[in-house]
Specification:
disordered C terminus, 24 strands, about 290 residues, rod-shaped, Immunoglobulin-like, mainly beta, binds calcium ion
Length: about 290
């Protein structure tokens, strides 16, 4: 015959049940945090028994500090978020970016997350800390990685050519971390636009086929944050010299470029990226509508 009782510290919890081993549930949620001594005592036949073990109760959630939201320019360095965390029974922490698990790691008394690699955008960054008893705490910080850097666009030179001659181009180099779009204007009116998605790009425009006179050609480029920059060149087309002894049978219109009737001037835009000495080229052909008269 065996009688085994359990006490917590000096308070009797009640009898344990069993034959060869004995057990009793202890609801620790009402116990005070900290160290407790669990003692099993009683008699097995004529033998008096008593054995103790030490345990620690933790009914307290971890604590976490609340650093402020952070804004920084993409590509700059030294941006670190730090949380001070505490628990008597620490276990591990998780980091979520926009509700997706980014990392899990063993508990540290100070959790530091370096943000430098985040690209342009806005993010929710959440740290969840867990103790050994499954209690948790969390904090969320808004991270804004901004782009206030205007794209870089080279300045192209004005040029002059004789009407009807060919091979005349204007070239711009353009760069930005977040390229977005381009717009091409002639004399202030947009004649084409498109997607710019190469960080280091070369825009080459053929200006052949323009009528005699001056023409302003403007390239405007935009990044994803709405920053923009433009450059304008003036293309002066001098009239072709009179050719003697040739009769013109198509004299009804004003001066027309070589290439036959109806040949609208064509702008050829080449957008490229320099990868060492290799260039990847995307070719876009733009038909320039010629103003009548
Ligand atoms: Ca705890
Ligand atoms: Ca930019």
């Amino acid at each position: 015959m065996a009688v085994v009782n359990i006490k917590i510290d000096s308070i009797i919890l009640g009898p344990a049940t069993g034959i060869a081993s004995w057990s009793r549930m202890w609801d620790t949620t009402g116990a005070t945090d900290g160290i407790h001594t669990i003692t099993a005592y009683g008699s097995v036949g004529d033998l008096e028994i008593s054995t103790s073990l030490i345990t620690s109760v933790d009914n307290t959630n971890p604590t976490i500090s609340t650093p402020g939201d952070i804004v920084f320019e993409e590509g700059t360095t030294g941006h670190v978020l730090s949380w001070d965390v505490f628990d008597v029974h620490p276990s591990y922490f998780e980091v979520y970016i926009d509700d997706s698990l980014y990392m899990t790691a063993a508990w540290e008394s100070e959790i530091n997350i370096t943000l430098d690699a985040l690209p342009f955008g806005e993010y929710n960054l959440t740290v969840v800390i867990w103790d050994e008893t499954g209690r948790s705490a969390s904090d969320t910080v808004m991270v804004t990685v901004q782009d206030i850097t205007t794209p870089v666009l080279s300045e192209a030179s004005d040029l002059t050519y004789v009407e009807g001659t060919s091979g005349h181009t204007v070239e711009w180099t353009a760069s930005d971390r977040n390229p977005y779009s381009w717009s091409l204007l002639r004399n202030g009116a947009e004649i084409d636009s498109g997607i710019w998605n190469i960080r280091e790009a070369v825009f080459t425009i053929s200006v052949d086929g323009l009528t005699a006179g001056t023409h302003s050609i403007t390239l405007t480029i935009y990044d994803k944050a709405g920053n923009e920059i433009s450059d304008t060149v003036v293309v002066t087309v001098e009239p072709a010299p009179e050719t003697t002894g040739t009769t013109s049978t198509t004299a009804s219109g004003p001066t027309s470029p070589t290439g036959g009737e109806g040949s609208d001037p064509i702008l050829l835009i080449v957008i490229g990226v320099a990868l060492g000495s290799v260039a990847i080229l995307i070719v876009i052909i733009v038909m320039m509508k010629r103003r009548s008269g």
